[in-house]
Amino acid sequence: MKKSLQIGGAFVGIIVGAGFASGQEIVLYFTSYGFQGIYGALLATVGFAFVGMCIAQLSAKLQTTSHKDMIYHMAGRSLGLVMDCLLSLFLFGVSVIMFAGAGATLHQMFGLPSWLGSICMMILTIVTLLLDVKSIVNIIALATPYLLFIVSMIAVYALTTMDLTFSELAIIAQRAHSNTNSWWVTSLLYMSFNIGVCFSLLTVMCGSVRNKKTAGIGGILGGLLLGLLILLTNLALLAKMNLIVGLDVPMLALANHIHPIIGLLMAISLLGMIYNTAVGMLYSFMVRFFQPHKTSFTVAVVFVGGIGFLLSFIGFTTLVAKLYAAMGYVGLVLVIFVVCTWLREKQFDN
């Protein structure tokens, strides 16, 4: 059970990065749909738990060492190459978003220049990548309980101090963000996008687990924890929608409304989750092309990290809106391959 909890905690820690913990993703994908966003959150929870279990069990069975092993097993040589390239590019893109998210957080909280937060996160990420994979997984898993506690506190405050009714707040949310997709389509795209985010590190992490059942339970627990965080964050943001419209980091604004100390704790939590995702994404990207602990790996990490820092100047909100939307469809293809492969393997096992 300890190993399953570690897998579940790391699963959450990888996904809950700048966009999620800041509230920016939740506003775009759930809160902006009003009451329907709650149904979307429940649908995403089921998807996370089931697909997370599939990936974990397949990785344990194949003893994967990188996402490449799983991709080529599921999609074959030709299509696997395309998926491999897209996923690798995706990993780097999310790393850039994490650097930008660190800059946005420090700017909103302390008024510091955005570039300062971005470069600090870049340096911290590069230093961490020089550790071994077990240390990285342990670091990522530790931050999850802390975030759950902070988000729960903010949600209780928001729900008990509402200024307007949910019906009035839902109208504000829907007017603030125009959505072209149905709530269930957006929910599935959000789930599939985030499966793409965690896929690489999850395959590496669960590939070292010998017991398929242990790995599968970890995937389910991680999915359920993610769903709980989505629901709590969505309710908190909807309850205070009149106060957070247009903000880059809405959850930080809500925390500051409670008390500056809570705001500071939230900022620390947010930076911790940004760090988790930045480390997980950049590590997964680098091990796809370079062997850890080699001189070439160190040089490449510094170079790629520097490029990521420069690209972070595009802006946090812009990056979240553009890249996440595009990669949701790529992730959906990945989810279809995962589920079909799991069902096929399940049939052979029986």
Helix content percent band = over 70%
Determine the CATH superfamily. Answer: Amino acid/polyamine transporter I
- Poorly predicted segments: none
Broad structural category: mainly alpha
Distance linking N and C termini: 25 Å
Indicate the proportion of strand residues.
under 5%
Describe the structure in your own words:
The protein is mainly alpha-helical and 350 residues long. It has a single domain, classed as Amino acid/polyamine transporter I (Up-down Bundle), CATH 1.20.1740. The protein is 85% helix and 0% strand. The protein is built from 16 helices and no strands. It has helices spanning 2-15, 18-22, 24-29, 36-62, 67-75, 77-110, 114-128, 133-160, 166-176, 183-207, 212-239, 241-244, 250-258, 260-289, 295-311, 316-349. The radius of gyration is 19 Å and the shape is globular. The relative contact order is 0.23. Keywords: Membrane, Transmembrane, Transmembrane helix.
